[in-house]
Amino acid sequence: MWISLHDETNSNGIKIMQFAISKVFNVRSTTFPHKDIHKETWYSADSTTVNQIDHVLIGNRFRSAITDFRALRGPDTGSDHNLVKINFKVKLRAKTEKKYNVKRKTVDIFQHSKWKQEYAIEHNNRLEILENMED
Questions:
Q1: pLDDT in tens, the chain (135 residues)
Q2: What pTM was estimated for this model as a whole?
């Protein structure tokens, strides 16, 4: 549902809508119900004509991150545009680091008789292979 300040749009408005559709963006500046004075993002030099011409486009993945959009009329920016305030809430995934701070343990294979016997057999087998290759 669009809650825009104006009912009709010009060629630039049509172009931005076509761009948003082609890139699968959401126009979030038209989705929040506010009074018209909080939608006015541009005003004419004589301050008689106002319009909503500044918009926020955001990808579908983050469309729910923007929780509010409104124009701020108070600050004097020296421009014919009002400042736009966007509230958003983003859930960031915490980076989990693998904790390998434990020091490596040195194992003496000769402490265990089973490992000592397996090592001796493996060592003898390799020596026999080397002796056979020399013959």
A1: 455 555 677 788 788 888 888 888 877 766 667 777 776 777 777 878 777 777 778 887 877 887 887 777 777 777 777 787 888 888 877 777 766 666 666 767 677 788 888 888 888 888 888 888 776
A2: 0.49
Distance CA 68, CA 90 (A): 13
Contact at 8 Å (CB) between 27 and 4? no
CB neighbour list of residue 86: distance below 8 Å, 6 or more residues apart: 28, 56, 66, 68, 69
Query: In terms of C-beta density within 10 A (0-12 exposed, 13-18 middle, 19 or more buried), how is residue 51 classed?
Result: middle
CB 69 within 8 A of CB 86: yes
